[in-house]
Amino acid sequence: MRTTTPSAKAKPVKNPAVIAKKANDTTAQDAISLLKQDHENVKALFSKFESLGDAAVVSKKKIVAQICLELTKHTIAEEEIFYPAMREIGEDTKDIMDEANVEHAAAKDLITQILAMEPGDDLYDARVKVLSEQIEHHVQEEEGEMFPRAKKAKLDLMALAEAIQERKDEIDLPSLQ
């Protein structure tokens, strides 16, 4: 059993407002599309986990490791890049951003618990299910409330996407891979 908490190597975060856009990048996606894609990827992984039987311990462990890796990278990038940009929109985003940070903290705590377990341990599947439900709730709020505010505020979503992707690529979590 592992009892370590997932963490990332700290790197200085670039100010999203100062990030230069790549001129000829035709595959670029905006921050909202990038974050929504992350949401879809994790949702698919949770569905895959739920389809496995009790005997599929190796597959469960691999899928859960991937879920935890994806969620950890996603939350770090959001907290360091997207959330500060959202807070700059104004005071009317304070409550939704505070709630999002609390939801991230709860997810991180559950991830730590799950990573300290093995498939087949008591409450393993239950914890993964609860994490799935928490993430689903969080995604609904982000996509239904936060993302529309980001669009309305006319944030530079292309520059934010570049910074988010760059940060996710920098995060090194070998213990989860």
- Taking the alpha carbons of the first and last residues, their distance comes to 16 Å
Inertia-based shape: elongated
- Write down the secondary-structure element order: HHHHH
- Structural class by SSE content: mainly alpha
Q: If you compute it from the alpha carbons, what radius of gyration comes out, rounded to the nearest whole angstrom?
A: 17 Å
Number of helical segments with 4 or more residues: 5
The strand count comes to 0
Low-pLDDT residue spans: 1-7, 9-26
Percent strand equals: under 5%
Task: Please describe what this structure looks like.
With 177 residues, this protein is mainly α. Helices cover 66% and strands 0% of the residues. It has five helices and no strands. The radius of gyration is 17 Å and the shape is elongated. The protein starts with 30 loop residues before the first helix and ends in a 7-residue tail after the last helix. The relative contact order is 0.22. Mean pLDDT is 85; it is low at 1-7 and 9-26.
A few lines on this structure:
This protein is mainly alpha-helical.
